[in-house]
């Protein structure tokens, strides 16, 4: 099963991707993890990413797609994957589809975790307090949600038009949400 996991910041994508990975026995591909690993390993793509990040720039879509392509070429991908953190906008969604078509690994499902915005603010405020994270203040969270609604939310429509999108209620306990995601794959 080849899955794209979507949802706003704080919707539980990372937590649910880790659980789905175990249940489905497929790799969880986080673009953030790919970037960090490539930088740490000093790969050619990692060096390019590091240069962009050191300059305070966003890592280009082409670079991220290159990392995804490298990852999808590994043998553990044969039974599928869970892609988390990409695509973040329509241009990336289209480029990803082109890459996946070329590799013969198209997305089977796009799962969107839906969570009320106020619940997200509460979740992330709790996480900030528990983990001492300064990036989860209410103002920062609301800004991240605004960016999500402007840039990333349209990706759900993109997958919806292709009949691949399933919205999943992301409110409740972790196991209940995970079961909803598994049920959505049937």
> What does the radius of gyration come to?
16 Å
Q: Under the CATH scheme, which architecture would be assigned? A: 3-Layer(aba) Sandwich
Spatial order of strands in the largest sheet: 2-3-1-4-5
What's the CATH superfamily, by name? Answer: P-loop containing nucleotide triphosphate hydrolases
In angstroms, what separates the terminal alpha carbons?
Answer: 10 Å
Report on the biggest sheet: 5 strands, parallel
Structural class: alpha/beta
Percent helix: 55-70%
Please report the total strand number as a whole number. Answer: 5
Describe the structure in your own words.
With 186 residues, the protein is of the alpha/beta class. The protein has one domain (2-29, 79-184): P-loop containing nucleotide triphosphate hydrolases (Rossmann fold), CATH 3.40.50. Helices cover 59% and strands 12% of the residues. The protein is built from eight helices and five strands; from the N terminus they run βαβαααβαβααβα. It has helices at 13-24, 31-41, 44-54, 61-72, 90-103, 117-131, 138-161, 174-184, and strands at residues 2-6, 28-30, 81-84, 109-114, 165-169. α4 packs parallel to α5 (90-103). It is globular.
